[in-house]
C-alpha cells in the first residue's frame, strides 16, 4: 500500500490547544495540537454527520461521588456541536462507546511543516 502525504500548513499555525480544519479532495479534516503532539481526525461525527471539529475541545469529566468533578484528558476531547457526543482526538473513539469512532490520520511534522498521511486516498498538496 502506498502512503500519500499532504502538506497542511506550518506547525506554528497550530498552537498547543488549537486546531486547523483543512479540505482535501472534498474531505474535511481537523488537525489538532495536543500538548505539542499533532493529531488529525475526520471532521464528521459518525452519529448524524455533523462537522465534529467545529465542536469545543474539552476535558473528560469524571465523578466518584455527587459534587466532585475531576477533569481528565485536558484538551484531548472534542464535543460534537449538534448532540454533544464526545470523541478522543488521539484515537477518534467515542468516549462512552469506543466502538463508535471517526477516522484518524497519521500526522508527521518535518522541520516546520505538518502533513497527514492516508494509505488509501490520493490527496492534493495544500
Report on the architecture of this protein.
GO terms for molecular function: 2 iron, 2 sulfur cluster binding. 0% of the residues lie in helices and 47% in strands. The protein is built from no helices and 9 strands. A 6-stranded antiparallel β-sheet has the order 1-9-8-4-3-2, with no helix packed on it. Strands 5-6-7 form a 3-stranded antiparallel β-sheet, with no helix packed on it. The chain is globular. The chain starts with a strand and ends in an 8-residue tail after the last strand.
Give a quick precis of the structure.
The chain is mainly beta. It has strands at residues 4-10, 19-24, 27-34, 37-42, 57-62, 70-79, 86-88, 104-110, 113-118. This is Rieske domain-containing protein.
Poorly predicted runs of 5 or more residues = 119-126
> Which structural category fits the helices and strands?
mainly beta
Spatial gap, N to C terminus: 22 Å
Largest sheet: 6 strands, antiparallel
Identify the CATH class: Mainly Beta
For this structure, the CATH topology is Rieske Iron-sulfur Protein
The helix content, as a percent range, equals under 10%
From the 3D coordinates, which CATH architecture would you assign?
A: 3-layer Sandwich
SSE pattern:
EEEEEEEEE
The Rg value, from CA coordinates, equals 15 Å
Count of individual beta strands: 9
Give me the side-by-side strand order of the main sheet: 1-9-8-4-3-2
CATH superfamily: Rieske [2Fe-2S] iron-sulphur domain
Strand content: over 45%
Amino acid at each position: 500500500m502506498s502512503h500519500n502525504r499532504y502538506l497542511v500548513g506550518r506547525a506554528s499555525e497550530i498552537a498547543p490547544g488549537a486546531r486547523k480544519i483543512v479540505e482535501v479532495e472534498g474531505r474535511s479534516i481537523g488537525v489538532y495540537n495536543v500538548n505539542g503532539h499533532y493529531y488529525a481526525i475526520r471532521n464528521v461525527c459518525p452519529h448524524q454527520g455533523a462537522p465534529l471539529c467545529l465542536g469545543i475541545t474539552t476535558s473528560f469529566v469524571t465523578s466518584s461521588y455527587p459534587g466532585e468533578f475531576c477533569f481528565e484528558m485536558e484538551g484531548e476531547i472534542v464535543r460534537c456541536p449538534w448532540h454533544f457526543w464526545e470523541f478522543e482526538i488521539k484515537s477518534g473513539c467515542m468516549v462512552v462507546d469506543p466502538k463508535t469512532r471517526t477516522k484518524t490520520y497519521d500526522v508527521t511534522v518535518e522541520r516546520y511543516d505538518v502533513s497527514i498521511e492516508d494509505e488509501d486516498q490520493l490527496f492534493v498538496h495544500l
